[in-house]
Amino acid sequence: LEQIPRFEEATGSIQSKQATDVAAQIQSRVKAIHVKSGELIKPGQLLITLDAETLQARSAQANENLNVINARLVNAKLHHERIRNLYRKESATLAALEQADADYQSLKSQYAAAQQLVNEARHIQDYSQIKAGSVARVIDRFVEPGDVVSPGMKLLAVYDPQSLRIDAYVRESVAVGLSIGQTLEACIDALNTTVPATITEIVPSATPGARSVLIKTRIEHRPDMVPGLFARIRIPQ
Questions:
Q1: Are 225 and 218 in contact (CB under 8 A)?
Q2: Which of 75, 57, 77, 54 is nearest to 65 (CA)?
Q3: What integer pLDDT is reported at residue 40 of this predicted model?
Q4: Residue 42 phi/psi, 5° resolution?
Q5: 3-class DSSP string for the chain
């Protein structure tokens, strides 16, 4: 006689806990794409360059407007001080002083608004250089050089290769015996390998039709593992 362990198998797929769609924040034309599918990217790496000629022109116009208002502000400040000195000497009326003060305060407000426009134009210009925020691997790209993109349009899909997991649905009668932190076996048929899978989440809700519970397991990173691969989790009975 020989004792053979019994297992309940739950099918699932490899997923990435941190999958991100890189989208455009401005309307522009794609000038260059610096990455390709499957490439590992680093934080701060340049991914896509958008045409910034229009943005540069807008920034230059905002700076020119700021310089004009600044020149008027300097003259208004000198005029205000001159009228105030004359008023102290009783050589200018109160109405003239109030008018000079109003002009000076108005130009101060205009200068602050123009400074905000300059900062905004400079900030928007930075959107033409799309860079990576963290270590990731490129899944696919959805635009090519010359394409016109708009705000919110998806440009790239990336994922964190260090945060792979297996999501699987387990029969509710089997799921009640599982616990967080429990380690199971996960078979990856495409790679012909078995890896340990640690339960990190058990969704506390069963699907009425399938009578199953979703479990999420953490697996160790391997270079040949990619999201979407078929997996089978073996649960000992």
A1: no
A2: 57
A3: 87
A4: -115, 160
A5: CCCCCCEEEEEEEEEECCEEEEECCCCEEEEEECCCCCCEECCCCEEEEECCHHHHHHHHHHHHHHHHHHHHHHHHHHHHHHHHHHHHCCCCCHHHHHHHHHHHHHHHHHHHHHHHHHHHHHHHHHCCEEECCCCEEEEEECCCCCCEECCCCEEEEEECHHHEEEEEEEEHHHHCCCCCCCEEEEEEHHHCEEEEEEEEEEEEEEECCCCEEEEEEECCCCCCCCCCCEEEEEEEC
Per-residue pLDDT tens digits for 53-67: 777 777 788 888 888
Mean pLDDT per 10-residue interval, the chain, length 237 residues: 89 86 86 88 89 75 85 88 84 84 88 84 78 87 88 89 88 87 91 92 74 88 85 90
Tokens describing residue 21: 């769609």
Q: Which of 193, 189, 132, 198 is nearest to 164 (CA)?
A: 198
Are 187 and 231 in contact by the 8 Å Cβ rule? The answer is yes
Give me the residue label for tokens 């860079």: 131
pLDDT of residue 208: 67
Instruction: Mention every residue, 6+ apart, whose C-beta is less than 8 A from residue 237.
Output: 5, 6, 7, 8, 174
